[in-house]
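Dear support,

We are seeing what looks like truncated structure output for some complexes. This example has three components. We would appreciate it if you could run it in full and send us the complete token output so we can diff it against ours.
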Amino acid sequence: MQHFISPVLWQFLIKWLTNFAIFPPEASSIAPYADALYFFLIFISVIGLGAVAALVVTFSIRYRQSRHPVATQIEGSTLLEATWTIIPLILFMITFVWGALLYFRIYSPPPNAMNIYVVGKQWMWKIEHPGGQHEINALHIPINRPIQLTLISQDVFHSFSVPAFRVKREVIPGRYNTVWFEATKPGVYHLFCTQYCGTLHSQMIGWVYAMKPEDYEAWASGSTSGHSLAQNGERLFAALGCNSCHNDTPNAHGPNLAKVYGARLQLQNGQFVTVDDAFLRDTILNPTLHQVAGYAPIMPTYQGQVTEDGLIDLVEYIKQLDSDYRIEQTIDNSASQPVQTSATPTGTSAPALPPGTVKP
Amino acid sequence: MSTIVSLPDQSTATLPKVSYLNKEYGLKSWLLTGDHKRIAVLYMISITFFFFIGGAMAALIRLELLTPTTDLLAADTYNKVFTAHGLIMVFLFLVPSVPATIGNFLIPIMVGAKDLAFPKINLLSWYLYIAAGIMMICVLVFGGVDTGWTFTTPLSTHYLNTNVVTAGLAVFVAGFSSIFTGLNFIVTIHRMRAPGMTWFRLPLFVWSHYAASILMVLGTPVLAITLVLVVLERTIGIGVFDPSKGGDPLLFQHLFWFYSHPAVYIMILPGMGVISEVISTFSRKRVFGYTAVAFSSVAIAVFGFFVWAHHMFIMGISNYSALVFSLLTMLVAVPSAIKIFNWSATLYKGSITFETPMLYAFGFLGLFTIGGLTGVFLGSLGMDIHLTETYFIVAHFHFVMVGGMLMAYLSGVHFWWPKITGRMYPEGVSKLAAVITFVGFILTFFPQFILGYLGMPRRYAAYPPEFQVLNVFSSAGASVLGVGYLLPLLYLTWSLKYGKIAGANPWQATGLEWQIQSPPLTENFAETPIVTHEAYDYEWLANKTRNEVQTVG
Amino acid sequence: MDSQSVAAQTVETGHIEHEHPPFLRHHFENVAQQREAATFGMWLFLLTEIMFFGGLFCAYLIFRNWYYPAFVAGSHSLHIWAGTLNTTLLIISSFTMAMAVHAAETRVRRSLMGWMIVTIILGCGFLCVKAYEWHDEWVEHHVPGLNFNPATLEHGTKAYPDDTLAPDMAQKTSVYFSLYFAMTGMHALHMIIGVSLLTILLIGAYKGKYVDGHVAPIENFGLYWHFVDIVWIFLFPLLYLISRHQ
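Here is the complete output from our reference environment:
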């Protein structure tokens, strides 16, 4: 094609067409479904507007005073009222069901999703991969893999939006929100903050880099800070003195946290809860609200003593705790590793994984 | 039955010797009046003033958005400008626009009463409005506020050092102005209807104001207490919205939107009332399906209270509660659709003329339909995830509020201008202004739907360069729109002195207000009317016109 | 006049030409309509007040559900005698206000003034007790945002030794006290407005304004006063009586 038109003109056309896009690229698995719903909505809107416009225009012409000087008084028609009540109602109900299905899909992450933490603060996005890669205003992800984002704000309301993926989630202080997607096309896509958050709200933007798996692995191994989040968490766990109560000695004051993630616990008030990220975070900050049955309410609160980043590190650490309170080393950086204070005498570390591996 | 109604010969009309305008002279007689008509005029002048301030803010916004970078305004300034635009337009223009001006003027006359139930409270309402307006101007003068009109916490409580408290209190005071107006209307409509004026003989204008008043009275106090809590949190430091103190910022969202969603129905319902009157008059026909339109107004008011969390779908509310609110949102869309169809059907077999109020009404029909349908887009959960907080929302609410409500307001102002002032506006230039407004509006706001789907977020001072073309279209349209709004200011003012004398019923409309002189007497009716005919009874009007000599003055 | 063609000469309008009580406002047809409109207006206004307080009650509901132990400890720290005294004062003042309305209806001026004065005194008494309580909260460092110290609530009191709270739950008592001050403060503001209005009405009563058949202002003020009383009757158990049964 390029040979039939001047290459200059062709380039201009491409540029004009891409800059005149009226849709963002469909770069996630859910995007085509969102676009399909959008088309349906446009379709019924065109029909609805067309119907109204047709009626108004036709009647205005046919019954204008010069042509129809005598108006006929008509009270109404129950049949017509019923018709134009029921038909819109049906169309709106279809929209409701379709939209609800899409919503549940977007906000119900699959169990095998790779989790990445996002901390929003005025006015930047801090993205923390479990393997220890830290990014600011950028998010590198592999395509064809479900990715779950665990979002929290350090200050005010923000909103994490990737139009190309058709996903968006509010990022609020005080609790985790999650959203998931699966990128399908390699490329670089806009990341926006869409909840007004103060002066530099319009600068709180960045890029999502969807990469082929091998490119992603290369990036991940080259970008790590040297310590995974869980390793940071292990350090923090000791620094804050958590291991004085949470260890696996027989007379420990607090519950053993090994394998607690995903477990079903009974609380003091008889309720059962499943331990997830939000539970862990909230228990660190408000232990009395999640008092586990069988333990005295002596855990101090860490409100104000640990940042959201620290909480993420701790949550990651606890998530990966197996039996012996030592996480497997993901990076062979023993030279730079600080001395770990472990509460257990038996601490055989697992064989080190190749550098750059991200734990599943 | 068919009716022939022709417009009277106005060349012999003269202004009545005594009317509410010249009954008393002097500033005190205006500032201490109890006459609902004078209060309506006071309101009309004040809201026009604030409209143009809000409009100036809009002009600044669109000028800044001509380019992708923040070159005209600093980011902070831009944030203050769009906040001022929102606060002024919502609370100082849209909420009082039709009810406080046209509603105040007409409700007593339409029900056959001499005044509203509580004239002193009506005046208090205006003074509260002025106080709120002065406070808002103080906010602007003292450096503005940049919370956005939605006062989202914790931004507004802990992370800004602009005039949040003053702005919050200004809205609080404006809210009470609104509550008292609504209270007055409800009592008047219930208790002061003339003999023979049953509920179903009331003009649909009254029904829609009744529905809007219910919302004003029940919804606004919740906004008031929410703002009080924000002020307390900001000044004293109570922590009901602060997670680090055990509070919950989502609680603010629930409380705020519990009012602010019904608020949009407060804004639109009176406009819908205007459209009923205008379409009926200029088709010379009773509104099709009077009962359906009347009940749909009340249905919108009732359902409108149960959909507030559709502003919070992505905030982390439970998926199941999102389901409920989405379903209810779809249900609240149905009465509006019913109204649009009823109005369109009113044109059927009518005898239609295209004076300026009718042109604005047609504009309303088209633009409100688009705006309302895009509301269905947003009420659909999965679609809302992509569209919320983008320019799609901005386009949606401007279509319903500006393309809908503002057009309805202008329609009403033109329609009842002869009644309020005794003079006609100039038809030629007013038609031109209507068309300019319509074209300018579409050019300004339609590209914003596209921008929204592309993902451009709202409240952005700077944006990625690929969005510039559409933004330029939008700003170009805004300049046309500005002309469309300036023209009425000019020619309506001109008409006060030079407009043609209107006479009592220049449109040959039914309704009690058209059976009295223009402008009306202070006490509206020389004697209490006894109503024997239905609303929009053109046969009755035709009989009456045949049987009497048309005298005016 | 065009309006003549609308209305036939009205036979029964109720508009008695120039022969009506001086307090009839001219936009009303008759005294009955004026009275009904005024009463309706007051009930509608009270409905707005319900919505106004409703926001606070809604917040209370949610936070009490989340932080029940904190609410219990906070409630126990209030002076039950003060709350009970205030409740008694208000209930009696509602009675005296009802008697005042009765006096206006039976057109006994001295009686009306007397009952109004007693109501004012009772209302002021309420406000004095409230002021004492607030001062006490200040002294005990229970004012959120200004001098709040949760440590004072971590250990039980003499009366409630089991009221120990972990530090994070003790911090949540600031939410309880925030709502306490917001709700009682809003209520007190309405009391102050009520007492002020009642004083103005008292002056009018002295001049004989309300014993000539024009009872609507007294009746409608009575409605307002009873409403403020009822709000307190909700506030008292919600704030003072959480888990008091021992």
